[in-house]
Amino acid sequence: MTKPDGPLWKLGAGTMALVTAFAVAACVSDADNSAAPPAAGPHSAHAGGSSAPPQPLRAGERFADLRMAEAYTPAPPEGGGSDEYRCQVIDPGLTRTAFLTGTQFAPENVAIAHHAIVYAVPPGGAAAVRRQDAKTPGLGWQCFGGTGVAGAEVEEGDAAWVDTWAPGATETLLDQDAGYRLEPGSLVVLQIHYNLLATDGKPAGPDRSAVRLRLTDGTAQTRELETWSVDAPTDLPCAADESGPLCDRAASIADVTKRFGPDVGEMADRQVEECGRGGPKPGDTQTCDHEVEAPMTLFAGFGHMHMLGRALKVELNPGTPKAMVVLDVPRFDFDNQRLMKLPSPVEVGPGDTLRVTCTHDAGLRKRVPQLKKLPPRYVVWGDGTSDEMCTGIMTVSPRKS
Fold it and tell me: Residue 35's closest CA among 210, 213, 215?
């Protein structure tokens, strides 16, 4: 999972948002319920996927079930490492505007499924995505930090991040009349993070996953959802009893850059600057304040870190009489990154501050099976499972005032 520029990371566009889905070649009509998600199997490194039965349909809703049209076998990138990020495209075949009110993703090969992010590309960017897919051999194309397609990039406002799956995630429904708006002609690009640490970077078999979409036509009162993200730097030194060339911060950043390119490699220093620091502050716990720029309602959220994560918290207006915690994950579990509904919606706007705080533990490196075989490293932001992140991902809806 990567992020574009900007301290308050807006990843949704209510007018074009779409849905979690792995790639399928054929179009699927609104009523196609032919491919239910498979049950998840055992995971070699952490718990499996979303095998819970779907919640019942509510008034006006319908299911659309999609499955990858063919299996894909991931391989590590040429730059080294054991992680592949693969973008794939799906045409949902919608014939009328709809709202996405829930998703349930089911990874088939849970031994290598680290997480998946879904981007919605509006009709104006569809041709560029199709060209990218057609010119790349095999199923989909390699991508980091978004779709990797000019004219369909999240950071440029040409596409929207609409959903994320991570181990333990299941369908979470909001009680409110709210959903992501889907326009006919839009496409979905899914960024799939496959992790091959358990097999020492060698191919670990194919994957053919599925997803169930919950759709509705919406009403005049339906709130259009967006996805926002607030993050903090990761500057986790090697433990006191560890040593090695990658325990140097600059060497570790160079290694991230080699594996994922300069956009990801620059993140560590960029975040330090965005959070108003004069330089990196090595330590287990990092924090960053983000000013809210527009009126919005917070509905739900979840925290994302990797396997050294211990705790994550998002606070509203800390240190003031209006302070409140909007997301609290006191014991982070990579196998249980579930979207959590707020007890009640929270209204925020200009003048408010969201603070994200993360705690990581380098000592876990010796206890996690996938990481214990790797050399010690100064951990910074990166897309690999051996790197780290600190992100609070919030489901929101904009307000006019």
Answer: 210
